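Minutes, project check-in

Agenda point 3 was the complex the collaborators sent over. CS summarized: two entities, 511 residues total, and the question is how they sit relative to each other. Sequences were read into the notes so everyone works from the same version.
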Amino acid sequence: MMRLRFILKQTVVNLWTARVPTSGAIISISLSLTILLGMAELGVKTARSFDFFKNKFQMDVFLDPGVTRQRILEIQDELASIHQIRLIHYVSKSDAAKKFEREFGEDIFEILEDNPLPPSFEIKFYKKMTHPGIIESVAKRIAELEGVDDVKYHREVLLMIEQYFQIIMLTGGLLALLLVIIMNTLIRNTVKLSVYARLNQIRILKLQGAGNFFIRMPYLLEGLIEGLAGGAIAAGLLTAIFRVISYSADALFNVDYLPSQHIAYIALFFGALMGMSSSGNAVRRFLRHVK
Amino acid sequence: MIRLSDVSVNYGKVEGLHDITTEFRENQFTLLLGPTGSGKSTLLRLIYMDLLPSKGTVYVENWSSRNIRDRHIQKLRRRIGIIFQDFRLIDNLTVFENVALPLIMLGKKRSEIRDRVHAILDEVGLLHRIKHPAGHLSGGEQQRTAIARAVVKEPFIVLADEPTGNLDPDSAETVFGLLQKINKLGTAVIMATHNYTLIEGSEHRRLHLESGRIVSDDAT
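CS then shared the predicted structure for the full assembly.
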């Protein structure tokens, strides 16, 4: 009981007496968490934005003008059997004419005597199946079906989306990795400074016969408190930042830019982990060299 | 109780101690004498195993420097009281907490800790300073606190490394007096000093070191 009291008191006293290094550690942790979790959150939002485009992606399968009703039903069945396809919508000649009028504002029968627009199928894919390679092979397969005249889709747009997605994710990932390394070094060194400022105290405890656990505990608790404080600040900053983004990009790509509900818990968890591990490592390294 | 057998200590190419063979018995008060750099502190560090010999063996109670491990060193230090010239108190802890520290490590109960700390602080004349942070005390008071911390755990020996080195003559007298009192109550004391005026007339064992060698020992 007295040990626990001593450890708790030491923790509080140390936090107070080492205010400057403690503040430094809290700031480092909060900044690194804000940047890292912010990037992770942005990554998720970006992926959702791309999903929005992928969900919109459509392939048009134009049928021969003289294809029979029976054959149309058979083609529909054959399309339904392709597992990459999520949605099939049949567009008859008259539907196509209506669509033409909707899109161009003119009645096709007023321009031409006959309706030249062929019947077609509008196809949508599962978002995981929108990779250009997959789409190309599906398009090829559909084009070979009897009664299919042509298959059209925006290949270039699809390629561009995929390319941008990969570049953004790869650059973001590498940047995040680099930041993790920099931030980890920064936090470790800040905490190490705060531990080294009290080397004399550790040495005194050792000379009195204190065990490593007894010496390490106040530092671990300090790390925990610093980490939780850093995590709380990061959670606050992230919420504020994403509220601003959400406000200015509300209608963009139908993506909700508000931070996810768990961001506070994640920030607190990783903050505590960062604080405790940095603190624990710094003391452990020193204890190894002190008899 | 404590035996050094053919002990040498090297700091790189510099020899700290050379072939020291001696022993320290129970209840004995030993004055470790010699100029600065003669090896007094090195000898004390060997006893509390802050340093292991380059050659030879140090025996302290049932422990031997040959096979001692870190956790044994912790246990050994809980049985030894150590006092330094620079006090080595934790400044942001109160006098009570500094003195209670060894008892906390020994897992003593709160009531026992309170009683023993009060008793020992009364003994060294610091009861009125019990709630003060150690960093706010005078040099003499800090050293008396360090003595209280060393003695409160009832060690079998107190090692004092130049305990009066930083003190004015009056405080030095008080500290030396306290150490003699502790010894009279049954605890062995080894005190390293080069304050010859202070120890003048005392009848304790004198072990004289020079350049890492024992040059005289009136126990032999």
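Noted in discussion: Chain B has a mean pLDDT of 92.
Follow-up: revisit at the next meeting once the mutant set is ready.
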